[in-house]
Amino acid sequence: MRPVHAITRKARYSLIDRFRSLDLRERLKPSFLIIGAQKCGTSSLFHYLSQHPQFDSPIKKEIHYFDFKYGKGEQWYLRHFPIKKNTNDTITGEATPFYLLHRYAPNRVWDFDKKIKIIVCLRNPIDRAYSEYQMYVRSNKIEVSFEDWVKELINYQPKKQDWNNKSIKFKSLLLRGLYAQQLTNWFRIFERRHFILINSTIFFSNPQNTLNSVCDFLGIDRFTKFDFKPINTGDYSSMSPSCKHILDEYYRKPNRDLVELTSSDFDFS
């Protein structure tokens, strides 16, 4: 028999939400977002920042407010962030990698905070796609070969209604690597000074140097005691040469567009 004092998980979280809603005016508002891209070092960057004494973490890394949970409202979103401290130099933020791709996210973020700072991590799009595929393999979410999945998705273009369906995350394997197209959507809304762009290869080769730049960008002190333990890494075999050729062709022009839009630091050709 269930004890009389037992409470369901749903009811418990409902009580927590009610409690947290009482102090919204005392909560830190996120001053930055890590918007993507997935499998480009966003988890590592967020993990390292969470060690900084001037960063106060939200309840979880990925809140998905500006993509799939926007209908829950701003108060729901703000409940995920910590209470303000007595000092004024503490900041908070979150990292949801699907924001970079999502069609409606730039305008939603603009409506939330026109001064927010935006961090973007980019990686060779072929390596990024293969890493995402391997993530799904490890979690038993897919059984087809990488090449078959690439051929299935290579002509996929989301319809308007797809942006409100989480299944688009599973279908956007190749779209996520069209960085120039996505950044252009964001640059139409926000001035470039709101962004810092990070090449993941450079980040992982010298994380301290990248974190120095990120700290400067966020307006917090540089910190030298980060534990740079890798996050979400995995070993897997190389992709087939035929699939590599397909993806080389697919990303050739988008990669050139990225260099023209940003700089040679992001030449993934």
Summary?
About 40% of the residues lie in helices and about 5% in strands.
Portion of residues in beta strands equals 5-15%
Radius of gyration from CA coordinates: 20 Å
The average pLDDT score comes to: 91
Order of helices and strands: HEHHEHEHHHHEHHH
How many β-strand runs? 4
> How is the biggest beta sheet arranged?
4 strands, parallel
User: How many helical stretches?
Assistant: 11
What would you call the shape? globular
Task: Name the quaternary structure.
Answer: single chain
Distance between the termini: 64 Å
Instruction: Point out poorly predicted stretches.
Output: 1-5
Assign a percent range to the helix content: 25-40%
Widest sheet, order of strands: 2-1-3-4
Classification by helices and strands:
alpha/beta
Feature tags:
269 residues; alpha/beta; 40% helix; globular; disordered N terminus
Q: Your description of this structure?
A:
The chain is an alpha/beta fold and 269 residues long. The protein is 40% helix and 7% strand. It is built from eleven helices and four strands; from the N terminus they run αβααβαβααααβααα. Strands 2-1-3-4 form a four-stranded parallel beta sheet. Helix 8 (179-187) runs parallel beside helix 11 (241-261). The longest helix has 21 residues, at 241-261. The radius of gyration is 20 Å and the shape is globular. It starts with 8 loop residues before the first helix and ends in an 8-residue tail after the last helix. Mean pLDDT is 91; it is low at 1-5.
